[in-house]
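Worked example

This section walks through a single chain of length 243. The input is the sequence exactly as stored; nothing has been trimmed or padded.
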Amino acid sequence: MTDMMRPYLIGPRLAALPWLVHGFGNGGWSEVEFLAFADSRDMRPVIMRQAHSDTIHRVADVPKAKLEGDALMTNVPGLLLVIRTADCLPVLLADPRNRAVAAVHCGWRGTEKRILERAVRAMGDGYGTKPGDLLAAFGPCIGATCYEVGPEVRDVFLRAGFPASVFQEGMRAHERGTGLAGIRHLLDLRAANAYLLDISGVKKSNIHNAEAACTHCEPSLLSYRRDPRDPRRMYNFIGLAAG
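Given that input, the structure is written out below as tokens.
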């Protein structure tokens, strides 16, 4: 996933599937440029109003009204499922046996609601997907060393059944000159979602933690925490090739 000639990144396991179109945003690709890309592939984008929820939509056509939720799945060629991110983790899923795909938006709220685990189950219910057949790829997101959260976030994750190992203890906030009191914790979104795939039965060898670059640290990537006034988002997408 290192071809920097593209305006997007690819996962090698997914790229080996000739019937698949996919990619992870690699910086400032505008909506106009993305739509032109989709048109050049004869693909019709499905773009949601993301809500940091655990809502998953199964789509067979481009909906007349914009959907609200945080995961899309389909087995219909020509539909390009889109997740927009600027620190949250985008996860793409592909079932080679049944030719079905999903795109999942995994911010901390959706992760705590176990949306990725629910998406694997939904693909099983909808398409007969077996977790052991699934290929998964993680795209760019904020890294664990930069993703500070408060103790209340750690508490809800532990209550939701996540292991404590998805967190590291950060510095005391007042030691960093923030003016905030108490301990901050460092959340590893990749580890938390890898845990959800693991307990869902997805093989570790089929999980490609494709792009380790931290969106907060890498200036070419978009980061809400670094630049909260920047309205742009990175486009992450997957679909079955048209025709």
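What to look for: The chain has six helices and 14 strands.
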